[in-house]
Amino acid sequence: MTDGIHIHRRTAVSSLLALAATGAGFPVGAQAGRSALNLAMVAEPPTLDIQSTPADLVCIIMQHVYEPLYTFDAKAALVPMLAEAMPTISADGKVYGITLRKGVKLHSGRDLDAEDVVASLKRWMEVSPRGKSVGAQLADLSAKGPLSVEISLKNAYAPLLSQLAMASGMAAIMAKETLAQPLREFVGTGPYRFKERKPDQYVLLTRFDAYSARKEAASGYGGKRQATVEELRFVPVPNANTRVEGALAGQFHYADLLPIEALGRLEKAGGKAVPIMTPSFGFPYLVFNTKEGSMAQQPVRKALQTALGEGEMLAAGFGDTRFFIVEGNHFPKGTPFYSDAGTAAYNERDSKKSKTLAEQAGYKGEPVRILTSRQYDFHYNMALIMAEQLKRAGFKAELNVVEWATLLQRRGDPKLWDIYITHSGLFPEPMLSPPQLGEGAPGWWSSPAKQAALAALNQEPNPAKRGPLWAKVQQVVYDEVPYIQVGKFASLSARSPALQGYTPYTYPFFWNTSLKS
Amino acid sequence: MRIARYLLARLGGVLVVMAIVAVLVFVLTRAAPGDPISVLLGDQANAEDIARVQKVYGLDRPLPVQFGLWLRELAHGNLGESIFLQRPVTQALWERAEPTALLSLMAIAIAALIGVPCGIVSAVYRGSAIDQACTGFAMLGASVPSFWFGLVLMQIFAVSLGWFPVSGYGEPGASLAARIHTLVLPATVLGVLNSALIIRFTRASMLDVLGEDYVRTARAKGLPESRVVLKHALRNALVPIVTVLGLTAALMIGGAVVTETVFGLPGVGNLVVSAVIRRDYPVIQGALLVVAVIYVLINFGIDLLYTVVDPRVKV
Q: Could you tell me which CATH class the domain A279-491 is placed in?
């Protein structure tokens, strides 16, 4: 609650005089005796329920409060977090035995047990879109002892552990007595505990002194987590320029997702702020309506794919070449899922060939409705270029620019669009994104080739063999064109020189960081 | 008796305005495309997920039923609960009342302190360099975008000089003085830009009055010029000035959105805009109703103030 709006004139005047007399300096950083990080975020989080939404912002904040059973280390390999070790997996790949670490404290003070894990995972499978896809594979989920959980699947499902480890839309382990819909209490096991949310002002987390850290060295999201700083204050600062100015003024120890144009100023800031580039942060992609409309037929989609110049689109979307990579491989070089399968069809920009293919496919000038929004400038800028490329190839491209809430609703109706533009973070497991690889996502892609390729990928437990199997899926995506991965983009953020030990990741975290006095 | 009747009539007017606003706001928010649950669940939710959560919030019911339920709650003084903020709308509004009220007060004070003297001087020295400067400033104020002016002030006073915070409404547990401190730059932006209108109204109103016979008479009596201008002329020119001050204050309750966004202030304008973007129906409906009532009350206050500044105006 606020202190009310009534102030005495004398109080106000004397306050202002006092401020003037003290030079009116803003108390940057901690209050006396308490270390705190001011972290400028892009918006007010839509919810604090990390299970129910894949929103990055919710994940960035609440991953400090909740932990998963497994997570990814610096090399994107799966490592245990709340689980004691990697699970035992039956020979047929259907039964996973998970043992929890002993003595892990919940923020309520109670020890975490298997019942919390079972109840949390069951909730996740009900409320999370990704959880539901895992739930569809589930035969049984039960506690086999105080610290022992067993997951039985209908069929072998190799992405299970990655799904359990993913930070956004997290399979977060919560105190079972707090589980509700909507969630009202936020009791997890993380190095920080939830203290207060003041909408449009801050979400305040404080150090959890009884945190049970792992013993292994910190690596990526894995290993030992240590809360050195006492308070984390996630402050919504929706205006991107204000986040830049706040970083330069030293008001924020970290400012998330800054406009690319700010890089020059940050570099010339004389050490007041340190720019952070996160390469291969994510990928923009175009989703095709395979159910109805002008893009329902695969040969027409193939013709359209031929017309596209993804390089031009990325240049329009991101400008500075340091912030995008023109490459058709869905996963970067050097990662287990890298493949160039199908990439001959990437960035062709051949309007003549496209026109011929479209004619052969029976395209007769039906409108191609491109649904996009200006929520993200790069979506809109890419859409403009794409529309021109399509027109050059004889497609009747129509831009339908709506705001984000409308886009999210309209993409659910196959009668309203043919292509929509969105983007995703780049994750270490193919099945984590985009959702079109699953069933029922907008676009409604379903085909025998898809089912066969994904079944082979998902049922192969050996990570070494999954790479080549992903290549086959990527080939099917290029052949059937349910979506087009436009390329990769990097993100720009900034930190204060006082923030030490920060390592950039897709979902920035602030355990294992410290504050230089 | 006459005052009681007048107050009763105005109260009736407030109720009619509220009823019209309630119907309009409900119909318009539901007629707009988009829905809160798609936003809440994010990019990966499918139609089935959205339908399930819509049921939790009662958004699957027919619109007339939803409207009826909302009206029933309104009759009990309950504006509903925000889908995103997980708190009652009244609480969300109350939390934003302080920054909005303080910002409006500070801005209107700055606007009046600049606008009224400039307008008077400009009228008294009509055609002079000082008049040109004041009217030029008024033109500039009317045409400069608030976000640009805000960023310029931020660059100078927050980033370079470090006198004020760039953004926010104080740290957790900040004192009232610290919170007021965060409002100095945004209030200056709003105050300076709004002073343009006040300069022009004051100047025009003063020019009208300065040409009146009684001003000539006052001068002929040998009264000092300052007394002629400040007592005889200004007093009679006040009605339109008070009107424009009141309207400016009313607009700031929900209309300082750009300034609030640039300075990251948790005000009512910001709340309404966020709610519209997210389609948080209860917040949009509740906030607009409350803002409408405040608007009507401020206008009512201005009407009462007329009787103070001009005894010829009767209730």
A: alpha beta
CATH class of segment(s) A28-47+185-278+492-515: alpha beta
pLDDT tens digits, B124-136: 888 899 999 988 9
d(CA A307, CA A303): 7
Please tell me the total count of domains within chain B: 1
The answer to whether position B19 is within a domain reads no
Average pLDDT over residues B265-284: 90
Beta carbons of B48 and B55 less than 8 angstroms apart: no
Question: Of B163, B167, B274, which to mutate for an interface test with A (greatest number of A Cβ within 10 Å)?
Answer: B167
A245 with B154: Cβ contact below 8 A? yes
Q: With a cut of 80, say whether residue B149 has pLDDT above it.
A: yes
Whether the CB of A209 is below 8 Å from some CB of chain B: the reply is: no
- Distance, in Å, from the CA atom of A126 to the CA atom of A437, rounded to the nearest integer, reads 20
In B, minimum Cα distance to A201 occurs at B266
Chain B residues closer than 8 Å to A412 by CB: 38, 46-47, 50
Residues 122-151 of A with CB under 8 A from B: 129-130, 132
Q: pLDDT grade, residue B249 (50/70/90)?
A: confident
What's the gap in Å between the CA of B266 and the closest CA on chain A? 5
Type of residue at A99: T
* Shortest distance, CA B298 to any CA of chain A (angstroms): 16
Distance CA B182, CA B188 (A): 11
Query: Kind and range of the H or E element at A473?
Result: helix A463-480
Structural domain contains residue B104: yes
Is there a contact between A242 and B166 if contact means CB atoms under 8 Å apart? yes
Sign of CA dihedral A325, A331, A334, A340: negative
Give residue-wise pLDDT tens across range A136-160: 999 999 999 999 999 999 999 999 9
Are the Cβ atoms of B164 and A24 closer than 8 angstroms? Answer: yes
Judge whether residue B307 has pLDDT over 80: no
- The CATH number for B246's domain is 1.10.3720.10
Put simply, the chain A residues between 379 and 438 with a CB less than 8 A from any chain B CB are: 402-406, 408-410, 412, 422, 424, 433, 435
* Positions in chain A short of pLDDT 70: 1-33
ipTM of the prediction: 0.78
Residues found in chain B: 315
**Chain B nearest-CA residue for A15:** B177
Segments of chain A assigned to CATH 3.10.105.10: 279-491
Q: Model-level pTM?
A: 0.83
Q: How far is the alpha carbon of B263 from chain A, nearest alpha carbon, in Å? A: 7
B264 touches chain A (CB under 8 A): yes
Q: Which residue has the higher pLDDT, B74 or A501?
A: A501
CB contact under 8 A, B154 and A196: no
* DSSP-assigned letters across all residues of B183-212: HHHHHHHHHHHHHHHHHHHHHHHHHHHHTS
Backbone angles phi, psi at A53, to 5 degrees: -135, 145
Q: What is the pLDDT of residues B171-197, one digit of tens each?
A: 888 899 999 999 999 999 999 988 888
Question: Which residue range forms the structural domain that includes residue B251?
Answer: 89-309
